[in-house]
Design brief:
globular
Length: 410
């Protein structure tokens, strides 16, 4: 009798299973629209030119070594990461009310924030505080907060399936009706999976209700720069909330906008009302880090820090990011154009109205199944597609396949 005999088989992670199924498919025209990573027009991963350049600089720097970093991470990385989120001229930074924790990717930043809030928000070890995530949201959001010990993770209204856009009235209604001091996880830009963001005016409405009802703001910023090609535009919501006086957490990922997927480069930016409060928060964050990963890795963080702290490299990086964003925008425009030319039933304006890597196509589960089984085009069951999976070589086939699915399957 093995001590492991009663361990049940866990369900596979959907997006990785999708990629595995794609890799095993021998169909010559197969297309992978599921993977959440940038691809070139040749369907290849892209190492950013600026990243290659900085990696060479690091290799040739004899002053560097592999000693432990401070528990909270590389100081120049943490500071520069927070600055691109909040802006160099952020009053919170100038008033010493901003701190940060280097984390293992955006997921690690979410985990750190969740662990801290469970221990210290609304009292010690409070597992009963409601945590709200958008409906729909990235699948890991629910799991991260549940695994941190929160017992009440709830959805808030976000997606209007009929209009294929934001359900702002439902969103505001849930903000008004939730318990005071609830935690709300907000997508800073390029909402995953819908690609639908609030307008500036809608963000202002959201902020007004959240301030009045004493709700805690936890931003997930995974796509800054990658969404629109403009760092400031993609950070607008985060900076507006800071300007309104909110205390908040902001989980940042550098997987997409630096192409550092497997380096796991993340940052948790913390904004407090008083500098003294920041010191106590960071002291507790050290304790959580110490028992989680003990000490963070240096390579990816150093690549980001060197890039962000050199005016020349920073400018080059922004050009690289814009290259990626522009290709996504081009694919959106062309997919919409081709679907309209085919006379595909329904409206497809949402393809270009959405932003970022992902598009919520509106395809239902049966139509998705048809796409996978009959057309060998792999996408999530929700109908979410990665626009980077489209190329000049496969976009006609994808558009024809969507047309085929929509016309044949209800």
């Amino acid at each position: 009798m093995s001590v492991f005999s009663e361990v049940p088989q866990a369900a596979p992670v959907a997006v990785f299973k999708l990629t595995n199924d794609f890799n095993n498919d021998q169909f010559p025209q197969k297309v992978n629209l599921g993977v959440g990573a940038y691809r070139t027009d040749d369907s290849k991963p892209w190492v950013l030119p600026v990243v290659k350049k900085v990696e060479q600089m690091i290799v040739q720097d004899d002053k560097l070594n592999h000693e432990y970093l401070p528990i909270l991470g590389l100081p120049e990385f943490r500071a520069s990461a927070s600055k691109i989120a909040l802006g160099d001229d952020s009053p919170a930074i100038l008033e010493n009310r901003v701190g940060a924790v280097q984390c293992l990717g955006g997921t690690g930043a979410l985990k750190m924030g969740a662990e801290f809030l469970r221990r210290f928000y609304n009292g010690t070890n409070n597992t009963k505080t409601p945590v709200y995530v958008s409906a729909p949201t990235w699948e890991n959001h629910n799991a991260v907060f549940a695994n941190a010990g929160f017992e009440d993770v709830r959805p808030y209204k976000y997606w209007d399936a009929e209009k294929r856009g934001l359900d702002i009235n439902g969103f505001l209604g849930d903000l008004e009706s939730c318990p005071e001091r609830s935690v709300f996880l907000l997508h800073a830009c390029a909402h995953n999976p819908t690609g639908t963001d609030p307008t500036h005016e809608q963000w202002k409405q959201i902020a007004e209700v959240m301030m009045r009802r004493k709700l805690f703001v936890f931003f997930d910023s995974a796509y800054q720069g990658f969404a629109s090609g403009n760092l400031e535009k993609d950070a607008w919501a985060v900076r507006y909330f800071v300007s309104m006086g909110f205390e908040m957490f902001c989980a940042q990922s550098f997987s997409k906008n630096f192409g550092l997927y497997n380096e796991r480069v993340g940052n948790l930016t913390i904004v407090t009302r008083h500098p003294d409060h920041l010191k106590t928060v960071l002291s507790q964050m050290e304790k959580i880090v110490r028992t989680t990963w003990s000490n963070p890795p240096t390579q990816g963080a150093r690549i980001v820090a060197v890039t962000l702290n050199s005016p020349q490299l920073f400018a080059e990086w922004k050009d690289n990011v814009k290259t990626m964003a522009d290709r996504v925008l081009l694919m959106r425009a062309q997919l919409k154009e081709k679907l309209q030319a085919l006379g595909t039933p329904g409206t497809w304006n949402h393809v270009t109205e959405q932003i970022g890597m992902f598009s919520f196509t509106g395809l239902n589960p049966k139509q998705v199944e048809h796409m996978v089984k009959e057309r060998h085009i792999y996408l999530m069951a929700s109908g979410r597609i990665n626009m980077c999976g489209l190329t000049s070589k496969n976009i006609d086939y994808v558009a024809e396949s969507i047309h085929d699915a929509v016309t044949k399957v209800q």
